[in-house]
Design goal:
Layout lengths: L2 H16 L8 E4 L4 E2 L7 H12 L6 E5 L13 E2 L6 H5 L6 E4 L4 H10 L4 E3 L2 H5 L3 H7 L19 E10 L9 E8 L17
């Protein structure tokens, strides 16, 4: 349908939910400018701006902007197309509530987004799956394990992943006590983290 009708559909959903809970308990997550299997907007910037401007008056708890940018993923899921530039800074000017941003951030760029005022929080998804000790790595400025999307959500069975000072196998997430102490240095263990059905954005 038209961009106006698609905006109206989302706003009617928010209105219906807000009739049961207050709007300030509702968050909306958008992927502005994203294209998947050919589905997208001819003018994604205009479409995102129009929707965010209307969401500004809805009294939401937060707006979460998850953008898929060039360089943010080492391998693309089939049918997914990338954008070259981030829309979040300009969309932030249209929304007065809390804004969470996601995709392609490391510690330095996440801090810059907060310092520049176009984000109130930064979410990490793929990077957290590959680095379950991500807060500590950010604190230390340590190197990251590269995400392997083929292993996410149980894609390639049981495999290992490395944390600072401890190496785990994925079985440890299923009640097994499987780990190896290794001092204070990062371990680069063969294999990748198999993922979890419960893995997602953490901020």
């Amino acid at each position: 349908g038209s961009a106006a009708n698609r905006r109206r559909f989302l706003l009617e959903i928010i209105e219906a939910i807000a009739a049961q809970w207050s709007a300030d308990r509702i968050g909306v997550k958008l992927s502005p400018g994203g294209r998947f299997h050919g589905a997208g907007d001819e003018d994604p910037v205009k479409a995102a701006q129009g929707l965010v401007a209307e969401l500004d008056g809805a009294g939401l708890a937060y707006l979460h902007l998850a953008e898929v940018l060039a360089g943010s993923l080492p391998a693309l899921p089939p049918g997914l197309e990338l954008r070259e530039r981030r829309l979040a800074p300009e969309l932030r000017r249209l929304f007065r509530g809390p804004v969470i941003v996601n995709a392609g951030f490391d510690g330095q760029s996440a801090q810059a987004a907060l310092d520049e005022g176009w984000a109130d929080a930064v979410a990490f998804g793929a990077l957290f799956i590959a680095n379950p000790d991500l807060p500590e790595r950010l604190r230390r400025g340590a190197a990251f394990n590269p995400p392997d999307h083929a292993t996410f959500h149980g894609g390639q069975g049981e495999a290992g992943f490395a944390v600072l000072g401890v190496a785990f196998r994925a079985g440890a997430f299923h009640g097994e006590s499987v780990f190896e102490q290794a001092g204070d240095q990062p371990i680069h263990q063969a294999g990748k983290f198999a993922g979890s059905d419960q893995a997602g954005d953490v901020f």
